[in-house]
From TrEMBL:
The lineage of its organism: Bacteria, Pseudomonadati, Bacteroidota, Flavobacteriia, Flavobacteriales. Residues 88-210 form the Methyltransferase domain. GO terms for biological process: methylation. PROSITE patterns: PROKAR_LIPOPROTEIN. This is SAM-dependent methyltransferase. It comes from Polaribacter filamentus. InterPro entries: Methyltranfer_dom, SAM-dependent_MTases_sf. Gene3D superfamilies: Vaccinia Virus protein VP39. Coiled coil: none annotated. PANTHER family: TRANS-ACONITATE 2-METHYLTRANSFERASE, TRANS-ACONITATE 2-METHYLTRANSFERASE-RELATED. GO terms for molecular function: methyltransferase activity. It holds the Pfam family Methyltransf_31. It comes from the Bacteria. Transmembrane segments: none annotated. Keywords: Methyltransferase, Transferase.
Length: 237
């Protein structure tokens, strides 16, 4: 039954998606040549990276991921409660979604992605029907398309640096959070040259704080226990 609703969702979403680029204010962004893997668009001194396409889905599900990122520890860092409502922004294949949903057994996990192919992969996962508390949502380049004042926690794993409109996206997320809600921003550490990831796909704590502050958030803590990534927790300022 969920698959039928998902197909209807795809039809409606595809029919309604409009180009956001032309209608957005450009003064908060600058445009210049930069990294080969960047889009030539800059926000607060940081070049935005190209989005990883659905063709890279196998990398999201690689066997080495737990060892490289210690995802189990990340989930513990989030202190998920049974009644939590959680949004995974840029959920991809649902790698984290399927780890969080059993813990938030009386709540719900919303898997948000801009690529329909990623959402379809989640729906086709055998655990999707079993868990019953996962919703798939198609976002767009400026909005997560989530209900307001709904979420206890928002997770973004290695995706924020690829947002074409980071300010608009964070403001959209801000609306969806409860007053005491938290954003878990997970990004590969720029500060660590040993992390084997391209520089444009990393972020420093300093840069993340600058960008989140511009949207009204402050850093509560940076949980420094993951092998390659920051685990930065932001709350409303």
């Amino acid at each position: 039954m969920k698959n039928i609703f998902f197909l209807l969702f795809i039809f409606i979403s595809t029919s309604c998606v409009l180009s956001q680029e032309k209608n957005q204010p450009k003064e908060i962004y600058t445009f210049k040549k930069g990294d080969y893997n960047g889009i030539g668009k800059w926000y607060l001194g940081r070049e935005i990276a190209y989005v990883m396409g659905y063709e890279g889905i196998d990398w999201l599900e690689r066997a080495e991921r737990e060892k490289e990122e210690n995802t189990s520890k990340l989930i513990k860092n989030m202190d998920i409660q049974p009644t939590d409502f959680i949004a995974d922004i840029g959920a991809g294949s649902g790698y984290h979604v399927f780890k969080m949903a059993p813990i938030a057994s009386e709540g719900k996990v919303y898997a948000v992605d801009i690529q329909l192919e990623m959402l379809q992969a989640i729906v086709l996962n055998s655990n999707f029907e079993k868990l019953k508390n996962i919703e798939v949502i198609q976002g767009d380049s400026t909005s997560v398309n989530l209900p307001e004042n709904k979420f206890d926690k928002v997770l973004m794993v290695d995706v924020y640096h690829e947002f074409n409109f980071p300010r608009e996206m964070i403001l959209s997320i801000k609306k969806s959070l409860k007053k005491n809600g938290k954003i878990y921003l997970i990004e590969y550490r720029t500060e660590d040259d040993a992390v084997p990831i391209k520089t444009i796909h990393k972020m420093s704590e300093k840069q993340a704080v600058k960008e989140m502050k511009a949207a009204g958030f402050k850093l509560e803590k940076n949980i420094d226990n993951l092998p390659w990534q920051h685990c930065m927790v932001f709350v409303l300022n």
